Amino acid sequence: MDQKVYRQFLREFLRDASQKSDGSNAGMANFLMQQIQPGRFTRHRDEKIRALNDLQRAFSEHRHWPVDMVFTYLGIKPEEVQAK
Questions:
Q1: Range(s) of the domain holding residue 19
Q2: Is 75 exposed, middle or buried (0-12, 13-18, 19+ CB in 10 A)?
């Protein structure tokens, strides 16, 4: 598994979740739970599935944490997500 691609998908999913939800932890968790797993012919499928699963698990297990703390738990700086 390519860690660089995995981290890129983490940032991409987090950016989408923060932009397309209300920005709260619960809103982002609901958005991520509604995302569909990538299909068989998706490029970098394993990295994308793992990133989505890790995000779903982190936001569902830590719903009481502030969003920035969940980002840090995942190893992503909040500035990386909200800057673009």
A1: 3-37+44-82
A2: exposed
